[in-house]
Amino acid sequence: MTDLTLEEKASLTSGSDTWHTTPIGEAVPALTLSDGPHGLRRQAEQGDALGLGDSVPATCFPPAVALGSSWDAHLAHRVGEALAREACALGVDVVLGPGVNIKRSPLCGRNFEYFSEDPHLTGVMGAAVVTGIQSLGVGACVKHFAVNNQETDRMRVSADVDEQTLREIYLPAFERIVREAKPYTVMCSYNRINGVHASQNRWLLTEVLREEWGFDGLVMSDWGAVNDRVAALEAGLDLEMPPTGTDEEIVEAVRSGRLPEAVLDLAASRLLELVRRGEGRASFEGWDLDAHHELAREAARASAVLLKNDGDVLPLRQGQRVAVVGELARTPRYQGGGSSHVVPTRLDNAWEALGRPAFAAGYRLDGQPDAGLSREAVAAASEADVTLVFLGLPEAAESEGFDRTTIELPAVQVALLREVAEVCPKIVVVLANGGVVSVAEWQEHASAILEGWLLGQAGGSALADLLTGAHSPSGRLTETIPNRLTDVPSHLHYPGGDGHVRYGEGRYVGYRHYDTLDADVAYPFGHGLTYSRFTYSDLDARETGGDEWSVEVTVTNAGERFAHEVVQLYVAFDEERPSRPRHELRGFAKVGLEPGDSERVRFALAGRDIAQWSVSRKGWRIDAGAFTVEVGASSRDIRLRAELTSRGDGYAAPLDRMSTLGEWLAHPEGSRALKQLLQGAPGLDRTDPALLRLAMGIPLAKFATFGIGLTSEVVDGLVAAVRGDG
């Protein structure tokens, strides 16, 4: 750093324009950044400032809402590698993705960019995308760090959330990706966290991310997230994007002594290290458009979720008269709006992929009623044996920058479905949506429901593959589908107001809430049907070391065709009065089997998998005792259970005068000392359960006036004894 001037070092901490870092002569080249969670959005040279209207064509892969539903980390890695190949061909050094924020509410307008309501699944899928991108020397940028779970007031709102919830729900995916995939960069979010902007939150960017998790890359801002350049640098933010022309503030702060030059040196060195890493980027003239389109089709096929299939109406059969109803079959929605919008290299639609059967638009995409279109749809359906009804959310309903206000489908679409169902006995609904939609009010009119999400540029062909039976559906839900919006655990708190949003539901997000309360849902987390059926047998769960266990199960395809099963492992805690979520996902495996074939699926568990965050200890706590492992096909379809025991971490909280009687009796040394003292003590009938229950919550110091020998001096002596002071 000694050969750079103060001004040059300051310049490295902000971009040179919207999409480039700042070069310094020939010694430090500019790096090119590009949006790209599911496809490259490389700005055209003469395009607009953000490139939203005129980006260079690139493969539009299924967004994270779909890719996550594949539950296939190997596939996610391959998609990441394809993104990297296109980045190399387009001269992109850093891909701004993946997004790994948790789906706290189905209303979040950006949910299509995120994987799941579950941090374990999100972390595994996100890590796979990152390793895929970085396998060719292109940098990945994990975003948005952290607690960016809504678009409403996103640049100012304070996400007010307790530390245990942060550690167990909103940070673990980032932690897994940082520790396992080692991303080159992390992007901070816009929002405040408990009152402090993420861009200048030292606890988040330095203490947790770097010192605790070992992150050694560069932290950049979301576009426009910096509010105070000096405070952001001090907190651990290395790169402001895009530039605001305030580099002189950094120079002045160093010269005045307000900012240590060592802080600036560290940030600049991280940018230089990112440049060095970019020197290993592969070089390609272009990419195989057909191969990448086929990968997008494969990913889309793996991501659609068959929610319902009464009477095995799917797959379609030879000779059936099929009608297609719904403009979305001809004009597909395949991605969400905002910064992730990709200009695709081509675009399939389901109607053409199905061979152009009888078609009726049925509705207008703007949601306005059109009686003529409805009549045409009813007429087409009346002549069909099976009618495929394509429904979904219009493009204007979900995007970066704003949240939805409802999870209902457009009223004109639901009305059309009811009309069509009156004239055709077999209705298959195919959905297109980036966020969960309610099915409770209309699913009785459908024999089958295929949740298509947003499937990228090859989604139309992928849907045809699934509907015709060329492939069996293999996607599974990564978020619970509630019966109604008011059932969602965050409903009373979302999206907040007066500059704050309170995470009042705590750790009980998604299935952790519904399953703990055994609340009714439309479709549970992990649910998805195939054209086959699977059995589970021979569960073997055993301890392999200190707080380490192995879990094995045999899965068999008991159906008549090849299909995939997603085997899910949960750790469960059966408590009369829940003190934590009833069960939590801790492993999954996607296996493809021919009819009659079996596979032994193996999982490994460690102490962290059963741990809770302890606020008082500022660390993870592993309690001794029994817990249950559950293996099944969804959070509500548990096939096999086995009990295991943890030895615990051996930690005993220090005792003091205000520790309760219950805490003293639970402490190994405290219990021994106290029981010896209380033997034969007058006034305490230890055989009275009600009295004991009352006494357990009383701090020891408060017994001084009860006449049982626990004077203030005795309590002080007990404290000194268990601490080893006396």
From TrEMBL:
Residue ranges of domain Fibronectin type III-like in the record: 565-635
Name by which UniProt lists this protein: Glycoside hydrolase family 3 C-terminal domain-containing protein
Keywords on record: Carbohydrate metabolism, Glycosidase, Hydrolase
Biased composition (Basic and acidic residues): 1-10
Protein family per UniProt: Belongs to the glycosyl hydrolase 3 family.
PROSITE patterns, alphabetized: GLYCOSYL_HYDROL_F3 (PS00775)
Annotated spans, Disordered: 1-23
Keyword Hydrolase: yes
